[in-house]
Every structure is written in structure tokens, then in C-alpha cells.
């Protein structure tokens, strides 16, 4: 009997595992970096051990520190969560050598499936359909650049370059033509090396506009293996999943059975135990091809839990204890529909730049069929050191439309103040007609959302400015100055993300009129309490959630979120405008490449520096054409958001 579980992870997955472990009677141990000392998973565990500084290499990837924490606390089993060391065969082996139980598959299965090259060869031998491609010259080392270039000529374009190790879209490139290949190989190898410490690449024929459908499998050490339906993860951005649902609106019962049996065959072929996910690409004719196998619990496992009524973490612990699977294949039933979205601290209107800072308020909406898996709460700081996912928001319904409605409402009513999120972007996806019809492929976001308003900065409307002024005009938590004071007109100056705006605000009883230039708007105050304002807008009663921190005001209403800063009583300040030539870091991160030198001539939009953050490469581009004056960025530097990296001097006009 296992008694004490150490969770070798952080954030929402650590919280998720702790909840089930506690319910089953296990004592729990959290590990944390110095940056996570006050994190939610630390608070919820019975015991916790600091394993190093904020950098993941020195903490959550430090296997020795994690094993030492297990020894200190007397933990007898370790759950790896997902990410970090969850698919590290050496870590799984070290746990067993220490006399502990690893809540996951055998290390040889992890090692095999951790290599896209070797796993694809193994699946071909097991009779599982695979995408045509090139995995290297033989069973030895991976392909060289020249071998990849030669193989590409036989495979044809378009094709996919993929890092053999890891996933999450890192080290992956779609290559449309031969003249793009060499540079993409260089970039893919660099990104794979940064993310996984392994720059081995494979090539696959690109399946155009496929569905990404994955099968949840489970196996025990008694030779039993089952599949628990499928998840459709086709809605992706840069090969990273944005929306996941179960069951897939595209999969027929016959296809589900065929894919499920192929997934079980894949698991048995590698001597699997525990939870695993076999990912497939499915073309428009419902032909399916093995993509990869993730030897761990998936981020999106809650949708499977909601339609099967099973706790997959509990299943993992059963298997780890040597018990057989609790259900046979014919006992697994699917009920209703579930959809999950990943709520991130990122700015869709600014290229999905990760956001950092204090999460002043995080209040999940309440309602039937809703589930939130999160590792944060109000007051936490979103760190640049880790993935910026705040929560997984999941809705279940008796049918797909009911799940969609519930999820849209949950996103609209969840209050998130302090950092910009993708909340509005997610709600627009779920409400989209193409998604609603179940027709979204992996090309959906690139095609249907390429010009979506949520992906570009939107100036505040006079209606939103009026609501901002209404909240700022309220004193404290009361309604002083609204009921009995005579009509007054006062100037107000608000700073938005891109501009400063001068308003005229007129109070008359419970009515507020706001003017900005030639635009005018009127609102009536209905009621007010801290964080919630009720107004009558054009005859319709509306609610506005808000949070005020000093001069900064965060608002959520009309399906949107925005923030303003009250600078009415501050001296005028110059704003840094576009095209200034001051090229700044878009986020906290590390400089991994500098592509220019002082004195170089550059064009607007040209990439000057490659910044690595959140395990992804981000190009930093010139905002105007000119000459490189100051070059302050150096390869290997750690920089802060807003730090000046390059100064581009405007060229003087040539003499006539």
C-alpha cells in the first residue's frame, strides 16, 4: 500500500493531483522553486520542500533535488504531472532505483515514445498507420541537414519539420518550398536544443487541414488495456492546443472503434502501463495516421473525465499500486459532451505576448456543468519563468451546444484583473459558426481568425470610456455626489494602452454624461458595491465587474475586458510612439541570437534579435527602417520586458 505521494510539478496539475490523492487518503508532498514559495499547490499539500531557484533547470528539472525531497519527507511514490520531467526516462529509472514507485509507465516505454523517430518506426512495425516521412538513415543517429534536404525532395512539399524529442509545437516548422528548408532546419534545431536539449529532427509529409484527434489509453501490469474515447484538439495556434473537446464532432462510432483499437495496439506494443495518449492526424476522408504518443497525463484530460465519469488520476494511482484497471472496455460509457479551453495570461492583440504581473483578482464564474482546474488565486504573481496558463476552463453539457453555451457564459463571467488574458479570444472561438458546426480543422484559426477583431488592438468606444469614467467618479464604495449634488462638469484624463484621452464628465443626479470630442454618451447609475457596478445603458440594465488599484482601473463588461489609468491630476508625459526606433524586449526572457551589428542598414519589420521565453522563440523586429545605432543586446543576456535592446536611427534623406 502506497501512503505518501510527492508531486514533481507545479501549478494547476500539481493542485489537480493533490486533490485526488487527498480524497484517496494519501499524504501529499509539494515541491517548489523559490519563485513559487507562496503558490497554491504548496499551500494545499500536507508538506512542501523547496528544491531550488526560479529557473526550471535548477528546480523543477533537478531530479536529484526532487529525489532528495522524497527522502526527507518519506514519500514512497512520485507523480510527475505533465511537462518538466514527466516524460524523462532517466527520472523514472532513478525513482525506481531509489526504491520508490513512479506513477507512470516503464522507462523503456517513455524512452521509445519520447523519440518521434524511433516511435514512428515502432508503430510501423506494430501495424499502426503512420504519416509518410523520413526518420533518418537507420537505427543509429538522426538525420543530418543534408540527409533531411535530400529526403525532402522525395517526400515533396509542403512538409513538416519536427523535433524528435518533446512536443508543444517547439522545434516544429511547416515548410512550403525547398528554398525555405535550410533556414527552417537551423531554426528548428535551435529551438529543439533550447527546449529539450536534443536537436534531432524528422520530416513528415504535411497532411493539409487535418483533424487532430487523440485517444486516451490506459494499461495495467496484468496485460489489460482500454481506450476511453477520443478528444478533438484541432483548434490550435502555432501547433499548440487552444480548445479540446470530447467526443469529437467529426468522429463516427466506427472510426472511434478503429482508432481506439489502434491506440491500444500501440500501447501494448511498447509494454505500456498507466495513462497515455496516442495522437492521430485524421484527413477529410477519415483516414488516420499515428502522430505521437504522450506517456503521461494530458493537459486536456478533464474532458475525458467529464464524459466518462472516471477520475484518471485515481486510475493512475491504482495502476501504480499494481491493481488491475477498474473497468473493461465494454464497461466504459460516454455521456454528454465536454469542451475545455486554456485561459492564458497573454495578449492576443499583441501577437499573444505572454503577460507577467500581479493577478489582482481571479474569480471563476459559477454554474452547473462548469469545472476550473487552476494553480492560481487572487493576489498571485504571474512569473516570467513558467508557462503563463492561469486555468483550464471546462464545461459539460448533455449535448455539444449546451456545453458551448455554458463555456461561453463561464468565460464572459469569470473575472480576471491585473494581467491581460485571452479570455475574449477564447469566447469568440467557441461562439464561432464554423466551430459550432463541428468543422474546425487545424487550419481553422489561421483561416477564420486571421483578421478577427480580438487579434488587433481595439480603441475604446465612447460607451466603454463612459463606463470607465462612471466607476472612477464613484468615491470609495458609496454613491456620494450622485444623488443630491447639483449638476457639475469636470475634466477627466484617461491613459489607455496606446493613448491618453481627455473627457468631459457631467453629473446630474444618477445620470452621467461623458463627452470625448464630438462623441457623447449617457449612463444611469442603478447600484454600486465594491467590484460591481449596475448601470442602465440605453434602457437596458447591465453589470460591470471592476477592480481598482490606485490610479489603475480594470473593467469587464459588454463581453470585453480593458484597463485605463486616471492621469487627470498628473503632469503631462511624453509617450513612446510606434516607429521611434527604440526596439524593446516584448517580455522577460533570454537573448539566444543577435542577427545585426551596429552600422547595419535594416528595414521596418526585419528581425533583429531572437528572444527565448516560455520555451518559445520570439522574433524582435525593427519598428522602422534605418541604421543600427546602439546594439545593447548580447547573446546569452537575460532581459526584462520593456528593456531597450536596439536603437534604430532614421536615415537622413539623400541630397537632391
TrEMBL record:
Annotated Biotin carboxylation domain residues: 1-450
Cofactor requirements of the protein: biotin
Annotated GO MF terms: acetyl-CoA carboxylase activity
PANTHER family for the chain: CARBOXYLASE:PYRUVATE/ACETYL-COA/PROPIONYL-COA CARBOXYLASE, METHYLCROTONOYL-COA CARBOXYLASE SUBUNIT ALPHA, MITOCHONDRIAL-RELATED
Coiled coil: none
SUPFAM superfamilies reported in the protein's UniProt record: Glutathione synthetase ATP-binding domain-like, PreATP-grasp domain, Rudiment single hybrid motif, Single hybrid motif
InterPro entries: ATP-grasp, BC-like_N, Biotin_BS, Biotin_carboxylase_complex, Biotin_carboxylation_dom, Biotin_COase_C, Biotin_lipoyl, CPAse_ATP-bd
EC number, as in UniProt: 6.4.1.2
EC supergroup of this enzyme: ligase
CDD domains per the UniProt record, alphabetical: biotinyl_domain
Protein name, entry field: Acetyl-CoA carboxylase biotin carboxylase subunit
Pfam families in the record: Biotin_carb_C, Biotin_carb_N, Biotin_lipoyl, CPSase_L_D2
Domain ATP-grasp: 120-321
Keywords (A to Z) from UniProt: ATP-binding, Biotin, Ligase, Nucleotide-binding
Superkingdom classification of source: Bacteria
UniProt organism field: Marinobacter shengliensis
Lipoyl-binding domain residues: 573-649
